[in-house]
Write a structure and sequence with these properties.
Bound molecules: fe (ii) ion
Strand content: 35-45%
EC number: 5.3.1.9
Keywords: Gluconeogenesis, Glycolysis, Isomerase, Metal-binding
Structural class: mainly beta
InterPro entries: G6P_isomerase_prok, GPI/OXD, RmlC-like_jellyroll, RmlC_Cupin_sf
Helix content: under 10%
Protein name: glucose-6-phosphate isomerase
Pathway: Carbohydrate degradation; glycolysis; D-glyceraldehyde 3-phosphate and glycerone phosphate from D-glucose: step 2/4
């Protein structure tokens, strides 16, 4: 019998758009990000329906050994002087890692180990980020264009947002047109 040749899904490396595959899409709006930004008054003044980021994922089988593939599109902008960012998370299965690939825009990937100091990596088109297990991760858009990053992670990893109730220990703001990265006590 002749082997079957299947057209796989495709991703546009410049925009992160998927083609030839079934996808799921989720938007995260300003209203969904209560308590994430330091300047609560500025957050209240911002349109609650504005979509800060969208995640588009390929539909995948779930279960041990399966992988999800998704692209995050994070808008440029700020709440007060703090750059737009994703909520960020630990994996529910803490030991599970993930890989991010920068596609477009400029930003930072904030990595916060469960035990240890937070650190950042620059995200640009072509950057590769190996996120180890036991490490929370968040994207921050420090540029003026959409920041898009492709991610691949185990379907069993899951998300745990509650463990970060006190927030990440780094905030990234703009001051005098400079990007300011500072450590904070309680997120
Ligand atoms: Fe993740």
């Amino acid at each position: 019998m002749k082997p079957v040749i299947i057209q796989p899904p495709q991703v546009d490396w410049f925009t992160g758009a998927f083609a030839h595959g079934a996808t799921l899409r989720k938007s995260t709006r300003i209203a969904d990000l209560a308590g994430i930004f330091a300047d609560t008054a500025a957050w209240h003044r911002t349109d609650p329906d504005f979509a800060v980021y969208d995640v588009e994922m390929l539909e995948s089988p779930t279960g041990e050994g399966e992988l999800y593939t998704g692209v995050t599109h994070l808008q440029p902008g700020k709440i007060g002087d703090e750059f737009f960012m994703t909520r960020g998370h630990f994996h529910a299965r803490r030991e599970q890692g993930e890989v991010y690939y920068g596609l477009r825009g400029t930003g930072l990937l904030l990595l916060q180990p469960e035990h240890g100091r937070a650190y950042l990596q620059t995200v640009t088109a072509g950057s590769v980020h190996i996120i180890p297990g036991f490490t929370a991760h968040r994207l921050i858009n420090t540029g003026s264009e959409v920041l898009s990053a492709l991610a691949v992670w185990p379907t069993i990893a899951g998300h745990d947002y509650t463990a970060l109730a006190s927030g990440f220990s780094v905030r990234v703001t703009e001051a005098n047109r400079q990007i300011l990265v500072r450590e904070v006590q309680n997120g």
